[in-house]
Write a structure and sequence with these properties.
Layout (H helix, E strand, L loop, with lengths): L23 E5 L3 H18 L4 E3 L11 E5 H8 L11 E6 L2 E6 L2 H17 L7 E4 L5 E5 L19 E2 L2 E2 L3 H13 L4 E3 L18 H11 L5 E5 L4 H4 L11 H17 L5 E4 L16 H12 L5 E5 L19 H6 L10 E4 L25 E6 L15 H8 L11 H6 L8 E7 L15 H12 L5 H13 L3 H20 L37 E2 L16 H8 L9 H4 L2 E2 L10 H24 L7 H33 L12
Parallel strand pairs: 1-2, 1-3, 3-5, 7-10, 7-16, 10-11, 11-12, 12-13, 13-14, 15-16
Antiparallel strand pairs: 4-5, 4-6, 8-9, 17-18
Helix pairs in contact: 1-3, 7-8, 10-13, 12-13, 13-14, 14-17, 17-18
């Protein structure tokens, strides 16, 4: 039986138990994370095998008394002949022989991750008495950003209210937050920010004595799972909280205020990972208002945090939000590169920049941003989005690991081994090094956490892919489906649905990467010219002759920000990936694409195909009615039916719009409204 609250940690009797003595566990080591890892082993074996192993902390048990040994590698390697090779923080070894099992972590967190990996293998039927597994995270920073507001709402949240806040204060269920910590630890997440980067209203006071005790309570829940907490802070806090006349980051009184306030925060949360800041963006204050640059701003925070070992994560979503649609030279996608690459090397050591994966705003067909590969002297991570802001808002099925795999395989062209996954996996002197990932989370108080039960695959997939960027989207889908639905036809069908869903959504959405044909503000459903004359710089400039923006050297010169080889590839319509082609090029409607059809005919075709594929997805889901719990089946079916209505609106509005612009009919004679 699928309990959607438990996500991929289902209580399910496994069909074939391995020949391992799992009933007695000896723990070699101490610490809150080690103890929690042992408890998670006990809970996991109980939910999968029906009994609770005995846990011994004496540290002296031998194989005569115990069958399972948990601890750090340094405490277990000699006795059990484990590899002495040093792993990255969070790395682990799993070794089984005869009927014994050893799970050894490089550190305490590694024990936790090793336990959850073993339990995952056990649930998938892949655990046996001859395992020897060595694994470690590619990414040292594996973060979830919550955009939770202190009133309990969630910006871009589609699964109910916040699990942390309500009624302008910190308010939560300890059990629920602990269950969430368990889910995150099971896929290797080690860092979380709990409040919205748009720090408004009472959230500005999270760093004061009034609210810090409650914030410390949340940090205490995550701590035993190896997850550190960050707080988003408002750049103008010295004025708002400290009543100073300025927030100029180079003003001595501001520098002193941040030092004292940071000391106060660490008094309550000694292991706080640091602060996360959105500055000079979409109405948020920042250093620009004082004639300072972003290194000036970030470094002031970095120096206040450094004595505590804290980080400042500084978002690169900085652009002129008062653009003029009349001015074709302005180009918002250039902003992150223009604002931060010239400052490369001027940021303090504990500053980490956080650019979005694409240059615009999580659009369905953006290219990977040119800032990746270009930053060589500044620590940085990549921001993804798990919550489906532009990808169906957890109504439409859209399996995001498919896109993340595409991102990981993107070659920045900056030297050898320059794919995104290569830049994550290894540090090389003088080369770009992506230190990890952050992603906007997708959970709320809905019983299934994510609104759409199938959207749990995106949360699971994020953790798995940033742990190991070489994993394929299909491998992750297969893992999640088996862990959630068990072995059998249901899991196999769900994998098929997931794997085709992103391409289907892309077909009936804005065509070929042009972006932002959505309702302003809510970003849901088609509104083809909703942003066309706005100040947000998100134009497609369609007329009766052509559509798209020329971002090559002859246009805005955006492509010049890439390495020469990638710039040349993108600048040529014949070699530019077609899913990005209208993001990079302004093309006439009769432009011939690779399949021999015109651009306009491809727009028509793709939107009819996307709609029809949703119809087929519904029929595939209906075939599972007798294999699934009624509430899960009906809930997902209802969302598929809403998705079909969405696809119909996208199809009809997009096709009608371009038919009216051009007067050119669909050559297949399908229904397009005049």
């Amino acid at each position: 039986m699928l309990n959607e609250y438990n996500c991929w940690l289902q209580e399910r009797a496994i069909q074939e138990a391995p020949a391992l003595r799992l009933n007695s566990v000896c723990v070699r080591g101490e610490g809150a994370v080690t103890e929690q890892a042992a408890e998670e082993f006990r809970l996991g074996v109980k939910r999968l095998m029906g009994f609770s192993p005995a846990i011994c902390y004496c540290g002296e048990c031998t194989s005569e008394y115990s069958g399972v040994f948990l601890g750090t590698i340094d405490k277990l390697s000699g006795e059990y002949k484990l590899s002495s090779e040093k792993l990255k923080d969070g790395g682990f070894l799993i070794k089984s022989w005869e009927n014994y099992l050893v799970i050894a972590g490089q550190d305490e967190a590694g024990i936790m991750y090793g336990v959850f990996r073993f339990l995952s293998l056990l649930a998938q039927g892949k655990a046996d008495s001859a395992m020897e597994i060595k694994d470690e995270p590619a990414s040292p920073i594996r973060m979830i950003n919550h955009w939770d507001n202190i009133n309990g709402t969630i910006e871009r949240g589609y699964a109910g209210p916040s699990i942390f806040f309500n009624n302008d204060k910190i308010e939560y269920s300890k059990e629920r937050v602990e269950d969430y910590a368990r889910l995150l630890a099971s896929v290797g997440i080690n860092l979380i920010s709990i409040n919205n980067v748009n720090v408004r209203f009472n959230a500005r006071y999270l760093i004061t004595e009034e609210m810090l005790p409650d914030a410390a309570g949340i940090a205490a829940i995550f701590r035993p799972y190896g997850i550190k907490m960050m707080l988003c802070v408002n750049f103008n806090s010295p004025m708002i909280i400290g009543k100073l006349p300025t927030a100029d980051p180079l003003d001595a009184s501001v520098i002193d205020w941040w030092k004292k306030q940071t000391d106060l925060v660490y008094k309550y949360i000694p292991d706080l990972a640091g602060f996360l800041i959105k500055a000079d963006s979409e109405g948020q204050p920042g250093p620009f208002q004082y004639g300072r640059n972003h290194a000036d701003g970030a470094n002031t925070f970095a120096r206040a945090l450094k004595p505590h070992g804290g980080l400042i994560i500084w978002r690169c979503f900085v652009y002129n939000a008062t653009q003029d649609w009349r001015d074709w030279s302005q180009d918002r996608p250039k902003a992150a590169y223009d604002n931060f690459v010239p400052l490369d090397g001027t940021f303090d050591e504990n500053v980490i920049l956080q650019p979005k994966w694409g240059p615009l705003d999580f659009q369905i067909g953006e290219p990977v941003a040119p800032i990746f590969g270009a930053l060589k002297k500044t620590r940085h991570i990549m921001e993804l989005q798990i919550t489906q802001e532009y990808t169906g808002q957890q109504v439409d099925l859209c399996y995001l690991p498919w896109m993340w795999q595409y991102i990981m395989e993107f070659d920045t062209g900056h030297g050898s081994d320059s794919c995104i996954k290569d830049l994550v996996n290894s540090y090389k002197e003088g080369n770009s090094f992506i230190e990890g990932f952050a992603a906007v989370g997708n959970v709320g108080l809905d019983n299934n956490w994510t609104g759409n039960t199938l959207a749990q695959a995106n949360l699971y997939g994020y953790g798995r892919m940033i742990w190991d960027p070489s994993l394929s989207a299909k491998e992750i889908a297969e893992e999640w489906s088996i862990l959630s639905f068990g072995h059998g036809a249901a899991a196999e069908k769900v994998v098929q649905l997931l794997m085709g869903s992103y391409q289907t959504f892309e077909k009936y959405n804005a065509p070929f990467g042009v972006g932002f044909m959505v309702n302003p503000g809510m970003h849901y459903g088609p509104n083809i010219e909703g942003y066309e004359f706005s100040r947000w710089g998100t134009y497609h400039r369609a007329d009766y002759k052509a559509v798209g923006i020329d971002r090559t050297s002859s246009g805005t010169a955006y492509t010049d920000q890439y390495s020469p080889g990638i710039a040349a590839m993108l600048a040529n319509p014949e070699t530019c990936p077609e899913r990005n082609i209208l993001f990079i090029h302004r093309l006439p409607y009769d432009f011939k694409m690779k399949n021999g059809e015109t651009l306009l005919q491809n727009i028509y075709n793709s939107h009819f195909e996307g709609h029809d594929e949703v119809e087929a997805m519904i029929e595939e889901w209906k075939s599972l009615e007798n294999l699934l719990e009624k509430d899960v089946y009906n809930s997902v079916l209802a969302r598929f039916q809403r998705q079909l209505m969405n696809a119909r609106e996208w199809r009809d509005q997009i096709n009608t719009y371009f038919f009216r612009k051009t007067g050119i009919a669909d050559k297949k004679g399908r229904k397009i409204y005049e």
